[in-house]
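Section 3.1: Structural characterization of target chains.
Under the original work plan, the team committed to producing a structural model for every single-chain target entering the pipeline before any wet-lab resources were allocated. The record below documents one such target. The sequence was received from the expression subgroup and is listed exactly as submitted; it comprises 237 residues.
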Amino acid sequence: MKSLRIDVISVMPGFFESPLQKGLLHRATEKHLADIHLHNLHDYGLGRYKQVDDTPFGGGAGMVLRPEPVFECIEKLLAERSYDAVIFMTPDGERLEQQSANRLSRLKNLIILCGHYKAVDQRVRERLVTMDISVGDVVLSGGEIPALMLMDSVIRLIPGVLGDSESALTDSFQTGMLDCVYYTRPSEYRGIKVPEVLLSGHHKKIEEWRNCNALARTLERRPDLLDEETLEELKNK
């Protein structure tokens, strides 16, 4: 059975304790489909106070993660096993998208370095990091929340993690579009009725309706996901 190992390096590993004890990530580790290890960067810090940051050369506001603790931690891990990627969570990285999650879910060993403070010493990125990932054009206080987003998006795709394996395959972005809307019981609530086709039991018509609805929602909310040919066809209808 496939298992994905993820080593997370952070200055505040306690941040991950609750998410890893609940929900999908906990279920994945309980099933031995994911193996998540947390590493406290302060364990590799310098001096009596285990310092991991310092002021930037050239002056300016903010603090920068020193290279020594990061190098020592990552090189220790690399000496123990082969890793498919050393990922740094950073606003200037490649945007995390569904296809990225799909690709990472097929790998075996990952390291995720959570940034903190102003930046990490550039030598870390040049020598150790193999992939920079961003979760959007926004700056957070650290890379812990983005790391959780990355782990959740990747681990849920591992076969056996979700109760219904088809669920992940029909999510938004898997087909290049947004997903369609969904309804459940009751069939009428506060005067709003569920579309008749969804109650018909006619699987082909239901599939057609869902495809059309997904396309319409994508055109309305995220037309940037559609190619020019598809957009032109829709305009001519």
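The first helix runs from residue 17 to 20.
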